[in-house]
Amino acid sequence: MFVYPSGVDVSSSALRFLSAKLRRRRRELGTRWRRLSAGRQALLTLAHLRNGHPYAQLAAGFGIGTTTAYRYITEAVELLAALAPSLAEAARTASSKAFVLLDGTLLPIDRIAADRPFYSGKHKKHGMNVQVLADPSGRLLWASPALPGAVHDVRAAHEHGIIGALADAGVKCWADKGYRGAGGTVRVPCWGRWEALSTGQKAVNRSHAKIRALVEQAVAALKSWRLLRRLRCSTTRITSLVQAVLCLHLASSD
């Protein structure tokens, strides 16, 4: 296998943040020596999450075994996932905003037609459903644990407790028609065929669409980590990967 220099388009603040957390963990564990320093382990993890490179390629580039690369990355991902904000923390942050934006996105996975629970009829592909909360400027605030792609957005929002958390915090929420009937403080467009809507209802829907469109920036920020664009791991690990990416994104933003 050939090895060549490459780059990772991640801010240095994310690297420093993860390096510091890994050094603290090593001190807690009493680790004396490892093949990679905390900084190199952080860089290995960022390269995997940001570029989506497989373990074998990363192991060759960093001069370690494939098993060691997997173990180092898994350790860092679990550490980051534990640091990601909870829904309650996100709701407290949202309470200082005028409103929040809610949307669901599908993270594609490599599954076959027999895996029906993971097949999204809306997107016509297999994947995992992740709910995203963004502030009025479209900045990512929170991402939910992953559910099978067959789960509809409104059901996912209820299962995660998003509707109740926002209602308890008194935060208004803009969402699309997929959340019709959600209740609480969630606002959705007027329902019905476009030609059947009144002039006032059409104006409301146009205004609603302009406001809600900013949530796509938060979804794009999540998927700028290329590993999430095509997941080839076990579905049980996807939630940890999403939470790790969320933690790194917020650390970079701060």
TrEMBL record:
Domain DDE Tnp4: 102-249
Record key words, sorted: DNA recombination, DNA-binding, Metal-binding, Transposition
Molecular function terms, GO-annotated: DNA binding; metal ion binding
Coiled-coil stretches noted in the UniProt entry, renumbered to this chain: none
InterPro entries: HARBI1_dom, Transpos_IS5, Transposase_HTH_dom
Domain Transposase Helix-turn-helix residues, every copy: 34-85
Organism: Streptomyces viridosporus (strain ATCC 14672 / DSM 40746 / JCM 4963 / KCTC 9882 / NRRL B-12104 / FH 1290)
Family the entry assigns: Belongs to the transposase 11 family.
Pfam families found in the cross-reference section: DDE_Tnp_4, HTH_Tnp_4
First and last residue of the signal peptide: none
Cofactor dependence: a divalent metal cation
BP-aspect Gene Ontology terms: DNA recombination; transposition
Protein's name according to its UniProt entry: Transposase
Domain of life, source organism: Bacteria
